[in-house]
Amino acid sequence: MTTADLKARIAATLRPDVQRAQAYVVPAVVPNAVKLDAMENPYRLPQALQQALGQRLGQVAINRYPGPSLPALKAALAEHAQLPAGCELMLGNGSDELITLLTLACMRPGATVLAPEPGFVMYHMAAQWQGLPYVGVPLRPDFSLDAEAMVAAVQRHRPALTFLAYPNNPTANLFDPQAMQRVIDQVGAQGHGWVVVDEAYQPFASDSWMARMAHQPHVLVMRTLSKFGLAGIRLGYLCGHAPVIAQLDKVRPPYNVSALNAEAALFALEHAAHYTEQAAAIRQSREALLQQLAQLPGCTVFPSQGNMVLMRVPDASRWHQHLMHQGILVKNVSTMHPLLSECLRLTVGTPEENTALIQALKAAP
């Protein structure tokens, strides 16, 4: 088969929108770099816990399909998340899979996905791959939720899914709860559809929607263990009233969470106090970092309730390149949305990493 034949086969069989699309780019690993571009927990387990985890994973029957540890993991997550009575949860291979499964379950004629923007890109991507129209509603210039615009969009489009990230990514802020409630009430009043409150960054936030969900059957709360400190194992969970989760769980692949991932997550939850200490250290480092960044000339720093900071700089591309040359990786989000013009997103690292970041920023041209 010639190259021309192969191209013709691709053109004839793959969806045109897939052929036009750009793949989600995962940055290459740069040896010895200060990695502040992916909102990861910068702390590893101490040596003793690494050894204990390794011994435990070595005992997992990887010749068998996953199964025995999953009920225990769900029970541990329910306790950890303080899941309200009458609610259940389903497991996903990270939040990304859960977002995809939600759009798959709601893929009916006329269904629409709605979310504020700028926001997590996977809401749009999941809708696109399932063939659902996506509506993005701009945030206000200060990145607060525009409740009036959101309510109007709900009334007009009657979405099957409305995503509200709490805190938001990449802006790192918590939306006003009253503004959130106005949107949730409007979705409730339309008689169909779900509001998904995405709490990926909950370990670093001062508020959660989990308890409120108990009295709002059309609300689902989505979380992940990635920001908890387990980005490498890819485990998310979706919480909601039991009858809703029972239906959504039907579209979940039967073995979507591996036995090794489940056992590693159980181990982490058994040592949750250690991760709680890490989250507290990150929050403390975040406050110090916010103060230091605010002193940089010509820069605007936005409030953060996540393990990241959004800042507007004089020249995002130049500053991004400068940091790369200094061995510091951050995310240039300036082209993601007009509201993010000249913005960089910085992960909160260890105190030493944050110091290196500040020193490099001070030397930016």
Structural commentary:
The longest helix has 23 residues, at 272-294. The chain is built from 15 helices and 13 strands. Helix 5 packs across helix 6 (121-129), helix 7 runs parallel beside helix 8 and helix 13 runs parallel beside helix 15. With 365 residues, it is an alpha/beta fold. The radius of gyration is 21 Å and the shape is globular. The protein is 43% helix and 15% strand. The protein folds into 2 domains: 16-47 and 273-362, Aspartate Aminotransferase, domain 1 (Alpha-Beta Complex); 64-270, Type I PLP-dependent aspartate aminotransferase-like (Major domain) (Aspartate Aminotransferase, domain 2, 3-Layer(aba) Sandwich).
> CATH superfamily name of the largest domain?
Type I PLP-dependent aspartate aminotransferase-like (Major domain)
Number of domains: 2
* Biggest sheet layout: 7 strands, mixed
CATH architecture of the largest domain: 3-Layer(aba) Sandwich
Would you state the CATH class of the largest domain? Alpha Beta
Helix content: 40-55%
Structural class: alpha/beta
CATH topology name of the largest domain? Aspartate Aminotransferase, domain 2
Low-confidence stretches: none
Strand order of the largest sheet: 2-8-7-6-5-3-4
The overall pLDDT average reads: 94
From the spread of the alpha carbons, the general shape counts as globular
Q: Beta-strand level of the residues, as a percent range? A: 15-25%
Number of DSSP helical runs: 15
Write down the secondary-structure element order: HHEHHEHEHEHEHEHEHEHHHEEHEEEH
Q: Quick one: how many beta strands?
A: 13
